[in-house]
Structure formats: C-alpha cells, structure tokens
Amino acid sequence: MHARHSRALQTSLRRLRAGGLASALFMALLGAARADSPPTCRSEVDHIAETLRTQRQPELCPRCADRLVATLESLYRERKLPTSLFLSADAAQWDDPQTRPVMFSGKSRAGIADGDRLAAEIDSGYGPRGVLRLIYTRANEPVALATPDRKTFIPVTYCIASPK
Question: Which domain of life is it from (predicted)?
C-alpha cells in the first residue's frame, strides 16, 4: 500500500513538473511576444524625452511631446504629417526662427530640406519655434529627432497608436 501511494505521488509530481514547465514555457513565450510588439508612440516619445534629458539637450515641452506623438502616429498609420499641425515650409514663407504669423498659429513648419531627407519642426505651434526637428524620408518614414546643428540625433523606433 505504501508503494502504491509513493508511485501515485511520484506520478503526480511528474505531471506537476511537466505542467509547471509547460506553464513556464508559455509565460516565457508570452513575454517574448510582448517584447517583440512595437511600443506605443507615447512610450517612444517618453523614451526620446528621457534621452534628451540624459544628454542635457533641449527638452520636449508637454505640448511638443503630444504633437510628436500625434505626428508619429499619423506618419506610421497614414504615411502623412497631420495637416492640423504642420504647414509646408514653402507655404509658410516665414524665416524668423522666433516668430510666426498670426494666421499660422498652431502650425509648425515641415518639409524643410535636410539633405536627401526632410525635417519638421517639433514645437508647440505657438510662440517661439523649437530647436528640435523630426527628420523623415521623402516617403514620410520617421528617422530621428535632431537639433538643426545635428549635435543631437536620436533615432526613432517604429511605434503604434496608443489604445483609446
């Protein structure tokens, strides 16, 4: 009788270990799948902002960060800059880096030639224009956030819209 209980106990332990191993394997695969999924654009912008702070570079104002999130989501989802936030550099026709005409309040310049790529100013759209620019390809693929002098160049990782 003792041997029978011992065998039953050993069988139960083996099943438990096998189940535990399967459960651990499932959790590891689930964790790997989550790690492989792209970050939200909000978390990507938070990472960029933290990198700017760490490098003691100009920071993203809260409104600028929100605009960058909306811009990245639009570029990845629709392959275009949000027209509510940007105006082409040609159409804007203002050169003073610290002012913008009243009719363009809320808009930032985009389509600024940057070698074989383009740049869009990342600022609040109100008041002085910012020193940070989103560099993107002519196919509207984000590349990096940079200062005009290119002393700071932070690559942008593919991201998805935050769940609503």
Answer: Bacteria
| Shared-domain flag, residues 46 and 17 | no
Among 84, 79, 77, smallest CA distance to 41 is for 77
Those residues whose C-beta lies under 8 Å from the C-beta of residue 101, and which sit 6 or more positions away, are 94
Shared domain check, 24 and 102: no
- Read off the pLDDT of residues 85-103 as tens digits, 9 standing for 90 and up: 998 888 877 777 677 877 7
Token representation of residue 92? 């804007």
DSSP count for the chain of H helices, then E strands: 4, 7
Q: How far apart are CA 40 and CA 126, in angstroms?
A: 26
Contact indicator for 110, 80 with CB cutoff of 8 Å: no
